[in-house]
Known about the structure:
Low-confidence stretches: none
Helix content: 55-70%
Number of helices: 6
Distance between the termini: 17 Å
Number of strands: 0
Largest sheet: none
Radius of gyration: 12 Å
Order of helices and strands: HHHHHH
Mean pLDDT: 91
Strand content: under 5%
Amino acid sequence: MFINKSSDGKNNICGPNIVRFRKALRISQRELADRLQLIGLDVDKNAIQRIEAGKRFVTDIELIAISKVLNKTFDELLNIVDNL
């Protein structure tokens, strides 16, 4: 049976990394949402909050946009080795 949650029960594995990279840029959740909207991704501050908390799934389209805005690779966002 396939389980679509991370080992800690969250809906994504990129949330903690997004928080870390966003804070490193010294931008708020609202600023991240605004920057994502500028490149065409329709998200708001509440969506960012839920993604970072692991309460919301992240689509591949969203992951591409987030990686562009944060200037990080998919591997950096997913941190695959540490989160499995």
